[in-house]
Specification:
This protein is an all-beta fold and 162 residues long. Helix content is 0%, strand content 46%. It contains no helices and eleven strands. The strands form two sheets. Strands 1, 3, 4, 6, 9 and 11 form a six-stranded antiparallel β-sheet that branches.
Length: 162
């Protein structure tokens, strides 16, 4: 029985399409850091996931130095695509010490510095355009003295519509 050539219909050099990035969301539920790591200026002893009522959040309790507290490398970005990076933060120090945070994409500020209030959650958000398929995103502290107690929650990276 003759065989048919199926190479045109089923080429062997077909490569599966690479995953594309749409959204990444971290709310620390069940102590899940979702690949966020303590940055070079953060302290693993000071950054702990806590649950207050029904809400999970990352708590910084103690000294913070100026610099990157949290970092994440995001993969599968589309070069030329615009993305939004946002977080919520709340100052929790009993003596109302100043907390000032910023967001960075590839070591460039995209939001802030913003003074974080104690009464309500403060939103920080900025946009960046991917130049490569991966990027480092940072939560950056602008204050370095004594104790800075604050919560960070709802870290989100989302692709924006063209």
């Amino acid at each position: 029985m003759p065989t048919k050539d199926l190479s045109e219909k089923n080429p062997t050099n077909h490569k599966p399409s690479k995953a594309t990035f749409d959204r990444d969301f971290t709310d620390f539920t069940d102590e899940n850091w979702n690949n966020w790591t303590v940055g070079p200026n953060g302290s693993p002893d000071n950054l702990k996931v806590v649950k207050e009522g029904n809400n999970w959040a990352l708590n910084n309790q103690g000294r913070s130095d100026v610099g990157t507290l949290l970092r994440k490398t995001v993969e599968n970005l589309q070069p030329g695509q615009c993305y939004k990076f946002s977080i919520k933060a709340k100052q929790t120090s009993p003596d109302n010490r100043e907390v000032v945070l910023a967001l960075l994409a590839a070591h460039t500020s995209i939001s802030g510095p913003v003074k974080i209030a104690a009464e309500d959650w403060t939103s920080l958000a900025g946009t960046f355009t991917a130049e490569e398929t991966s990027i480092k995103l940072d939560v950056f502290s602008h204050i370095s003295y004594g104790f800075q107690d604050f919560l960070i929650d709802n870290l989100e990276i989302v692709a924006l519509e063209d």
